[in-house]
User: Fold this.
Amino acid sequence: MDPIQSRVDDLISRMTPAEKAGQLTQYFYFRLPAGAADEPALGLDVEKQPGMVESALAEGGAGSLLFVTDPAEINRLQRLAIEGHRHGVPLLFGFDVIHGLRTILPVPIAMAASWDPETIERGQSVAAREARAVGIHWTFAPMVDIARDPRWGRMVEGAGEDPYLGAAVAVAQVRGFQGAGLGTPDRVIAGPKHFAGYGAALGGRDYDEVNLSDAELWNVYLPPFRAAVDAGAGNVMTAYMDLNGIPGSGNRWLFTEVLRETWGFGGFVVSDANAVRNLLTHGFAADLTDAGARAVNAGVDMEMAISDAAYGHLTEALESGAADPAAVDASVRRVLEAKIRMGVFDSPYVDEDRARAVLADPAHRDVARTAAERSAVLLRNEGDLLPLDARRLGSIAVIGPLADSKRDTLGPWVFDFDLDETVTVLDGIRAHVGDRVRVDHARGVRVVQRVFPSMFDMFGDNRPGDPEGFDEEAEFRRAVELARGADVAVVVAGEWQNMIGEAASRSSLELPGRQLELLQAVVETGTPVVLLVMNGRPLDLRWPAEHVPAILDIWYPGTQGGAAVANLLFGAVSPGGKLPFTWPRTVGQVPMVYSHTRSHEPENQTRRYWDEESTPLFPFGFGLGYGRFSYADLTVDRASVAADGTVTASVRVTNTADREADEVVQLYLHQRYGSASRPVRELKGFRRVTLAAGESRTVDFPIGPGERRYWNAAARDWVTEPSTFDVWVGGDSTAELTTTFEVA
Ligand code: BGC
Assistant:
């Protein structure tokens, strides 16, 4: 018999129902800042929470903890679990290592904009190495939720609107976090989330209900999960909201029928925070015992709880027959198996000295800088204003409060960062040009506060503020005067990091506060302006897109963000990222995707509104660079294939510029007719290439049944159909170079 199985069997045979329930319970453990007690979303007694968790550990009442990142604390708590209880089952430590632990990488939407699976995998392997070094075994990432409505703040955590790109990014992240499989040294368990459909929250309002058709679910929202599971992800997290009327953590069809039975997922499922208890709130479960029974029967192995775990009532649920004992045992088995595979039984403690050394590894900062360079997207560059030539500049005015905000440079969903080593845009520019060029900074406008603060604002550095005695009128004038007297003005504008992420949905996409007004005043001085956008979602840039010569989307670029931005501005590297979403003109157009169907009167598709074009401001896949790319000779290696055959499309790409640059070559496919209307085009291949000045390269894309199949609402199944297929290849989703082939 498999030694892991016999070890698991032996342990289970010696466990009481309460001890089993304990293995299935995960608690937050944090010493919360003052003020947290007033946070209703947390629903806990702040003072008592750590003590409650520690006594649970001594009784075998918890199998996992989250939110502990100090290796000494991790060792102390681990000792409580192992030495305090007769079975001595070690804890699994989980945490949201979303885009880095100490070394902060660009936010996930930025990483997706690199269209570069290697960069993404390398980035998450650094995040995993730091996490594992401090004693974390498991990350609640990647978030692979498709996001098509930018009002939804969590768009920043995912890979954007497209299932094909989303699946590729999901796979790269799972590989980065986990390595070859559970138990790989220096790696952690990956937990794709939130299964499923969370990104389609009604009105973009976080946590609101989701109603998705079967076709959207299978063709758009599920593929990144499927890809992450196929890549070996060891965990999956549930979602908070109702999906088609069923709460995300009580949906047996999702966790048992789809995930395990259809996809063969062998890992364990964890609920989102308090989501099992919340089955009560939804009006789905009668009480906590019922909530626990429903979740475990549905296939939710572990409950993530702050306090009052529903799984604390599993013994009653087992006694009454509400919880299926076989389901409980299967869940315990999965959790224990993960612990054994991760080596937690064999080496439960961490080496605190080594942890310090790993966190300080300078190689990690290099990975973060490269990732930030590769994820920036150049949206406009009139008259080739960029790259700037530092030798020809006497002075640079750097404008905007975000230009020198370390905390905002890092973005949301980080807790263990080191502000001292964070490089802002201002720092980066200064370091790059040295004493040769005069660099002045003016904030220009006041920090904007949320109308409704978020629960994340209680964490020390998360809430932005103005310097003491800040006089906005005087500062506004000073910014404009600085710009007037400078050779170039670099304006940094966007959303403060607490305006994006969880519980950060917005009803507008405008630049918050007076940032647009400031930008307009700076542009009016006549000084050439570069706009750097700091964001995790598209913003309303209609005015800048017409009046500001250069616009570079830098996202929240992370620890080394400013250094990367300077390298991009001054041309040490060329921007090569591409948009992972359609960039609307205005909030009234959302949701807006490139892969819509033709529907009725497609000739009017750009004029569906009478007051604004129904075209995007920037299309999906768009991004400029310092190269110039031409596409030619698009061919397919056969004009017709059988239903199970593969066609290879080839294209020649040439960099006609006089410098090296990157391009993301994209292939789009369209099925002309069949038993459903198919999208006008869908991404089915991409490759990021670096071409020297004048270099040409032929890029091939296989188009097999996997690229052509889709879930058909009429057949209620996957189909591949005979049809004529259009192929387009180019540098964004409006590519015009085209050819066709037939599937017989
Ligand atoms: C979020 C999850 C996260 C969890 C733990 C929840 O509020 O929805 O994505 O992993 O908290 O921090």
Q: What stands out?
A: DSSP finds 23 helices and 26 strands in the chain. The pocket of beta-D-glucopyranose is lined by residues 96, 140, 193, 272-273, 502 (CB under 6 Å).
